[in-house]
Amino acid sequence: MTQTTVESTAQPVLLMLVDISGYTKFMVSHGKELRHSQLIIGALLESLMDQVDVPLRVSYVEGDALLLYAIRSGDADVWRRRSQNLVVRLLSLFEVFRERLLEIGAYSVCKCGACAEVGDLKLKIIAHSGEALLTHVGEFPTLSGIDVITVHRLAKNSVQEDEYVLLTEAAYRDLGLPREAEVREGSEEYDTGTFKTYIYLPEVNVTLDEEEIRARFSDQNAAVKILRDEVSREYTDVASEPDRGYHFNIGRAALAMNGYEEEWVDRIPVSSVASFSGMGNPFQMGMPVEGEYVVDIGSGAGVDSIIAARAVGPAGHVIGVDMTQAMLDKANAAKAELLLDQLEFRSGYSESIPISDGWADLVISNGVVNLSPDKDRVFREIFRVLRPGGRIQIADITVDKEIPEGAKHDIDLWTS
Ligand SMILES: C[S@@+](CC[C@H](N)C(=O)[O-])C[C@H]1O[C@@H](n2cnc3c(N)ncnc32)[C@H](O)[C@@H]1O
After folding, report:
1. How does DSSP classify residue 339?
2. Predicted confidence (pLDDT) per residue in 142-169, tens digit
3. 289 in helix, strand or coil?
4. Where are the domains of the chain?
5. Which residues are near ligand 1 (CB < 6 Å)?
6. Distances (CA, A) of 55 to 49, 73, 100, 132
7. Atom 10 in ligand 1: which residue has the minimum CA distance?
8. Residue 229 Cα to ligand 1 middle (Å)
9. Looking at the domain that runs over 7-215, which CATH code has it been given?
10. For all residues of the chain together, what is the average pLDDT?
11. Structure confidence at residue 386 (pLDDT)
C-alpha cells in the first residue's frame, strides 16, 4: 500500500518553476497537433530533467512545467558551494533547451502547427526561496505552503520578455548570480504578498552544424518520436485491420506480386500473411543457409522471418526486430503456432538494433529503411550487427530523382 509521510516542520527551500511557453493553443486542440505538441513538450521536459541533480530534485511535472526544489543547508559555507553549482545548472538549462529545439527542427518532417512552431517555444524559470512542508506520497515528494503558492503565482508576472529568469529577492540572495550577470529590478504583487524581483535575460548562443546534429541523433529527439509514432499508428492499423484498404499493397496479393512462392505462403498463419506489407522480396537475392544467424529489420507480422527461420533450421537463429507492438504481437502469435524455436522477435528500432556486434551472417529487411529519418544510421547499425563478410538483402523503394522539399516535410507521405 502507498504510504504518505509528512515532515513535522517546514524546511528552508529554494523553489524553481521551469516553464515552457508558446503552446497553449495546441493543448486545447485535438488530434495530430495535440499529440505532437505533447510529444515535443514531453521530450523537452525529459531533457531538462536530465540536468537535475542533487541537491536539486523534481517535485512534479505538470503540463508544460517542472517544479524543482533544493533543501537549503543550514551551514552557510556548504550552501554557498551548492548554490554556485545550482546557478551554473540553472543557466545551462537554457542552452540545453535551445540545442534540443535545433535538433528537433533538423529531424522534423511534419508541417502541423505544433511541429512548425517548435522554434518559437521559450523557457522561463521562476526562482523563489522560503519554506515548505515536504510530504512523501509513496516515493513522490510534494511541497506545500505559502512559498509554494507564491512561486506558482509568480509564473503570471509583468515581465514582457518571453525568455528569462525571474528571482525573488530571497532567491536572488540565496542563489547569488555570477557578478557579470546583469539583472533588472522589478516588483510583483499577489494575494501572498508583494515581492521585489530580479530579472535576468540569458544570452543563449547555440549553433549546431549538420554534422553535429547528425551525431546527436537520439531516440529521445521529439521529431524522431513523432515520426515513429505516426509510422507505428499506420502499421498498428495494418496489423489490426488488414482489410481496411491502404495506399500500398498488403497481404497475399502483395506476396504474389513480389514473387513469393505459394508453397511458402501456404505454410504461414493467415493472420501474418494478411498483414504482410513488404515492398519486394529479399529472398530473390538468395535464401538463408542452414545454420545461419539472420536479422530481419522491421519484421512486421513476421512473414520474412518465418521463411528465414525455416531455411536456417533448428541449428540457425532468426531475430525479427520491430517497433510496433501490434505487429510484434502478431509475429509472436505465429511463432507460437508454428513452434519454431529458432525464431525470436524483439522490440526495437532500426536505428539502434537490439543485437550485439557481429552476431549476424545475414541481415534482411523489406519496406522499412525508407521509413527511417536517418538512413545512414540504419546502415551503420546493419554493418555493426553483421559479422565480417556477412550479407545484406534489402527490398525497399528507391528514387532516382531529387525529392521536393515539400514532400520531404509531409509526414503523411512518410507513413503511407
Ligand atoms: C512496410 S512494413 C514491412 C513489414 C515487414 N517487413 C513485411 O514485409 O511485412 C514496415 C514495418 O517496419 C516497422 N518500422 C518502421 N520504422 C521502424 C523503425 N525505425 N524501427 C523499427 N521498426 C520500424 C513498422 O512497425 C512496420 O512493421
Report:
1. T
2. 899 999 999 999 999 999 999 999 999 9
3. coil
4. 7-215, 244-415
5. 228, 231-232, 235, 276-278, 298-301, 303-304, 322-324, 327, 349-351, 366-368, 371-372
6. 13, 10, 24, 16
7. 368
8. 12
9. 3.30.70.1230
10. 92
11. 98
